[in-house]
Specification:
The protein has 14 helices and 26 strands. By secondary structure, it is an alpha/beta fold.
Length: 501
């Protein structure tokens, strides 16, 4: 009623015919209308802010863990907010294909905002977590001009985000949560080797794949210039990969396919200068695979001219130069670094939760609740999944498969909790095997470490069919289930696009 009276007075100030009698009459009429609605048991809420009837669930991250929870959770029972520095999900197994043009970039991403307005999404970083007050301190990840100071107010509130006057100037905001899922993932591990961050490319994001694709084509266009000597061409067209895990091996395979198809056709005078070298400190590549498959992959790469330099240690990196302990100075045109995972800065900043002494991953119980350091007990409102977390006494690999299964478990848990029921079933990981592409329509498939089912292994064309069918079925949206095979078919018929833009 107060809102109506104030609006009537505003109208009266604009239109003199709107007298006090009109105000009184209309106000009484609306009061009677409200009384009639209450009599029929149909009250209406005229508040401009949404009711806080649903508990607020905040998801940090939009990777394999966070995005799968976002996709499957019952949004009618939870008030969901997503905090992520990117507004998309990376389908990481396809990034190597995108980096050489086998697939286009949009085929390997899924938009977070597909689920808005049911879900509130902020493209931002979470800098710190206050577990006792249940408050997240966040910083926008968008390149916007500084926000203006809130006039005549100590704070403002927008969609549950409290923006204080002091924090507005620094573009930070605080966000309250009832339940929290930490799924921020991890960064690329550099082992503090000097010069890596400045001179190497990583392959964890679609933007990395775009940068690598641009650099590969730049190397060939630069080497094609008439003022470049043959010695300079050899340096420019030396592609180095550090890390012999699945990511490094698959990128080497995809790059080999590019060099021996489109590059050989469109740069016939340069193809003979191109070389690929794969470095690793381990004695073999694909260390998590069966030893027979490791030998198969090594022989395959050696036959194709890919140099495998295992038990090699990189000491430092400079612009266009890789300094290896066993080799000395190694010139390169492109260096891709893929040597494991480093903790996310948010995880490093957390001191209230038990962490693994080596990886700094958050320790959780088998219900994926974080273990608080002061009490030694799990926090019933905070969960951690993906590369940022590790179950106590249950070492699991930091892979997309583990993060995906934890996310499926969390989705089921929260859908049960949303019905005010208990969910105490512990998480169990079911190993589905490992896949890696080796180039030329050949792959390896390892099921020797699975707990149930046939413990088999495959290598060759059949494993390649399994590799492609697995990644095709795992693509999330109908759009990408159409785009991925379509691009595979188009590039098989017409070849990869070598345009640089």
């Amino acid at each position: 009623m107060t809102v109506w009276v104030e609006m009537e007075y505003v109208l009266a100030s604009v239109n003199p015919t709107f007298t006090g009698m009109h105000i009184q009459h209309n106000t009484l009429r609306r009061v009677n209308s409200l009384a009639s609605l209450r009599a029929f048991g149909s009250p209406r809420n005229f508040s401009s802010s949404a009711p806080r009837s649903k508990p607020r669930l905040v998801i940090l991250g939009s990777g394999w863990g966070g995005y799968e929870v976002l996709r499957g959770i019952n949004k009618k029972r939870w008030n969901i907010t997503v905090i992520s520095p990117t507004n998309y999900f990376n389908f990481t197994p396809l990034l190597a294909s995108c980096a050489v043009g086998t697939l286009e970039f949009r085929a390997a991403v899924e938009p977070v905002r597909r689920y808005t307005p049911e879900v509130t999404a902020y493209q931002a970083w979470c800098d710190s977590i206050d577990f006792k007050r249940k408050i997240l301190k966040c910083m926008p990840a968008t390149a916007l001009p500084p926000l203006r100071r809130v006039p005549n107010a100590s704070h403002s509130m927008t969609n549950g985000a409290i923006v204080s006057e002091r924090e507005t100037d620094s573009r930070t905001f605080n966000l309250h949560y009832d339940k929290l899922i930490i799924a921020v993932g991890a960064y690329s591990q550099t082992f503090n080797v000097p010069g890596v961050k400045e001179n190497a490319y990583f392959l964890k994001d679609i933007r990395d794949a775009r940068a690598i694709r641009t650099r590969v084509l730049e190397c060939f266009e630069e080497a094609n210039q008439p003022i470049i000597t043959d010695d300079e061409r050899r340096k420019l067209l030396h592609f180095c990969i550090v890390g012999g895990g699945p990511t490094g091996v698959e990128f080497a395979a995809e790059l080999h396919d590019l060099l021996h198809t489109e590059i050989r056709r469109h740069y016939p005078g340069l193809a003979r200068f191109a070389r690929i070298s794969l470095f690793d400190v381990a004695p073999t590549i694909l260390g998590s695979f069966d030893s027979g498959l490791q030998q198969y992959a090594s022989k395959k790469f050696t036959r194709e001219g890919i140099r495998i330099l295992t038990s090699h240690h990189v000491e430092r990196v400079e612009a266009g130069k890789l300094f290896v302990k066993e080799e000395g100075e190694v010139p390169f045109g492109l260096l891709v670094w893929s040597t494991g995972l480093a903790p996310n800065p948010l995880i490093q900043s957390i001191t209230d939760v038990e962490k693994h002494p080596k990886t700094e991953s958050l320790i959780t119980d088998d219900n994926l609740r974080v273990i608080m350091k002061d009490t030694g007990a799990p926090d019933p409102d905070v969960f951690a999944i993906g590369d940022a977390a590790m179950i106590r006494d249950v070492p699991l690999p930091a892979t997309a498969q583990v993060a995906y299964q934890k996310a499926k478990y969390m989705t089921k848990k929260f859908n049960v909790l949303g019905k005010d029921k208990e969910h105490v079933t512990p998480f169990q990981f079911h190993n589905a095997g490992s896949l890696a592409y080796l180039g030329d329509w050949i792959a390896v498939y390892d099921r020797t470490k699975v707990e149930s089912g046939p413990k088999t292994k495959e290598a060759g064309r059949l494993a390649w069919l399994l590799w492609r069918s697995a990644y095709f079925t795992r693509t999330i949206s109908i759009r990408n289930k159409i785009l991925v095979p379509m691009y595979w078919f188009i590039n098989w018929i017409f070849g990869r696009d070598l345009s640089r833009f």
